[in-house]
Design a protein that fits this description.
alpha+beta, 5 helices, about 130 residues, 3-stranded antiparallel β-sheet, binds zinc ion, 5 strands, two-stranded antiparallel sheet
Length: about 130
């Protein structure tokens, strides 16, 4: 039993009735091979870190690695996680209750959103060298 509070606890609890588990797990089908869907969206959200953005503003730089079948999956411009949902998926990607349910069910409490909550601060990446 957990004895600590995660940042999204309140929204996750309140969102349970509005967004049932099945609905949240169905949404997970849209995070892989989602290049076309996300690029047609005007709003997209990373369910790992909570970063929200307009994909078209990132079209030149957006991280996208094709798999061996040539399918392309959008990675988050902030944290590089492949947990991006675009609004063309039909899911409410800007509803905090929906976001809280996704981050909890997909990452089981181990997401940046659950540890830090929403943050305007972009992640700063540094290169390290390992011998
Ligand atoms: Zn992210």
């Amino acid at each position: 039993m957990k004895n600590y509070e995660l940042k999204m606890d309140r929204y996750q609890e309140e969102g349970k009735e509005k967004y049932l588990d099945n609905y949240i797990f169905e949404a997970e089908n849209h995070i892989m091979n989602n290049y076309d869907e996300v690029m047609k969206s005007s709003k997209a959200t990373c369910m790992y870190c909570g970063y929200s953005f307009n994909p078209n503003e990132f079209s030149a730089t957006i991280e996208c690695i094709p798999d061996r079948d040539g399918n392309k999956t959008i990675h988050c411009p902030n944290c590089y996680c492949d947990a991006i949902l675009g609004d063309k998926s039909g899911y409410p990607v800007t509803d905090i209750y929906f976001i809280a349910r996704c981050t909890r069910l997909w990452f089981n409490g181990y997401s940046r959103l659950d540890y830090i909550g929403f943050s305007n601060e972009r992640i700063k990446w540094v290169k390290i060298e390992v011998d």
